[in-house]
Amino acid sequence: MTTQVQAAASSDSTRDHWMAVRPRLILASAFMLFLELALIRWTGSNIVHLSYFTNFVLLGSFLGIGLGFLRVGRSRRQPYYSPVVLAVLVLVVLMFPVTVNRETEGVLYWTSLATTGPPAWVILPVIFAAAALVLMGPAELVGRCFPELPRLEAYRYDLIGSLSGIALFTALSFLSAPPVVWGVLAAVAYGLLLVPRPRVPYVLLVVVPSLLVVGLLLVETLTAGALWSPYYKVTYNELDRVGVKVMNIQVNGIPHQEAVPAAARLQWEAQYGLPYERAAAPPKDVLIVGAGSGTDVAIALSKGAQRVDAVEIDPKLRELGGTYHPDHPYSDPRVTTSITDGRAYLEQTDRKYDLILFALPDSLTLVSGASSLRLESYLFTEEAMRAAREHLKPGGAFSMYNYYRESWLVDRLASTMQNAFGHKPCVDVVSQAGQQAVITAGLTPDAQRCGPEWAGAVAGTPAPTGDDRPFLYLKDSTIPSLYIITLGLILIVSLLAVRVVAGPFARMRPYADLFLLGVGFLLLETKSVTGFALLFGTTWVVNAIVFAGVLVAVLAAVEVTRRFRTPPLPVMYGVLFAGLVLAWLVPNTWLLGLPVPVRVVAAVTVAFLPIFAANVVFAKRFSESADATTSFGANLLGAMVGGCLEYLALVVGYKGLLIVAAVLYLGAFALLPRRAVA
């Protein structure tokens, strides 16, 4: 009966819509993924909470997409609610800016010194619900196309559209397009996909909200004077400080860097000169990670460096430094710039240095698609410091400085450096206020000249972080209460939303195994994102390639299932478990030791084998399901729950997620219908 209702609804949709079903499905899928990426990017730039909790927007998107599929067949009305909610969301975000506290339950956040707006446990569920409602509209439009095509053909076009959405957003990121461009594209997509009948509701519920979104984003673009890097909304202004012209740079509304003449910076703050004083010999070859707008580079040149390799992950910060820094360090022929991730640079270069300096590398955002991995997380692990040690010349030194906020964080980093170098580092706490400190270690004890000896870590100092759990700013191996409370609220809201939109849960009971497949898949995707970030860098390019690669692996699984006779489901589950075992057994240290081309092949094989096998399993089950939209919706809701379980990595590490995924896939196999097993 449900399938008949869906067929009738989709038939009405076909007669009413001017676009054929296949191009409409591709357009709707591309729009769905593009809108999801745009929401994650834009909200994170305007609500500081979401710089550290972008996963909550992703969870809301998964819920909305799942609900959109489940709503197919239950209503013939066009999803006019989506552009309306999007307009309200944009209006609220721009009118009520929010910042987060610097420390919440043992987690440090680099942010503004004051807080505004509602608390995190209020604003995060609100944004989650808004994202779900916005994405539910495009998902419903996608879902209405599914009953009109064979199962796997519909899924195939959905994946092609999703890849197109990723490609479009990636291209706009490369071009540094401002959000008004995203708004225009969203307005065009709404106009093309939503049927303009009857005319009055269409104008009021589609045209007016779309124009409001474009107008608000245009005002933001023109008034903020912002540069949109792939990571931040970057704004800047010139200040006069004691007669010195200073370029003040903010990212996502938070003070981040200052382009200051080297002489003034050395006079104002002692920490900038200490690495050169603690090194046993004046450094000639210097590597600066986190070069930013160029002040640290200018200081290295003023200290007599003959070559400076400047590594900066954000191209817009480097661009501002090249244009506005008063010393013009990036114009100096002794300076070579690399726009990449610092850990990736260390793993890929063969150069050696007299001094390697981590110059305040404190990002204010997460790697997209990972709940707790910040852009700089892999810089501060014990393995990273060992990599830095391998790139020092005889007599060379490694140093880092920052405003560390907490004394336990200074001791944790000093302990990490001690483990990596085999002896105590120099620790200079320049100021107790904000724990402004410099930590330096020579290649050997003779290669460093310390002031007062570091007393060692006090009792209760957290252990050094490693590549499997690179959570430097998490004091204890627990899931903070903020996350638990917010995730609990999200799951409660999700249960209620599914019941209201989709009706009784019994409707999805036959697809419980598909639900668990969705949970496991999201954990595999997270492991892939974080693994590739370690192996090739946390840059936006690597991130986009990984997401595209995951979709290509899924598309390949669909094509293989469509065109060839694949093994029975029990056999494919066996391949899946073999892939999980392989991913568990292959250590990251071995992969990092391979040449980059070989590393790419090995990493792709290890990461995508279980993803491919899992999606062959899904494709075979989905092709035989009695209700395409309900089964697909159940799978997407599972992905949302997988996004919640991703926070288990804070306790078990990213490798431990493989065990969690294996248990989930075992449960999915146990819930297979008997006819599917046969």
Describe this structure in words.
There is one protein chain. The protein is built from 25 helices and 13 strands. By secondary structure, it is an alpha/beta fold. The strands form 3 sheets. Strands 9-8-7-10-11-13-12 form a 7-stranded mixed beta sheet, with helices on both faces. Strands 3-4-5-6 form a 4-stranded antiparallel beta sheet, with helices on one face. The protein is globular.
Concise synopsis of the structure shown:
The chain is an alpha/beta fold and 678 residues long.
Number of strands: 13
Gap from first CA to last CA: 26 Å
Q: Can you give the mean pLDDT?
A: 86
**Radius of gyration, in angstroms, nearest whole number:** 26 Å
Question: Sheet bearing the most strands, described?
Answer: 7 strands, mixed
How many individual helices? 25
Percent of residues in helices comes to: 55-70%
Strand order of the largest sheet: 9-8-7-10-11-13-12
| C-alpha geometry | globular
Q: Low-confidence stretches at least 5 residues in length (pLDDT < 50)? A: 1-14
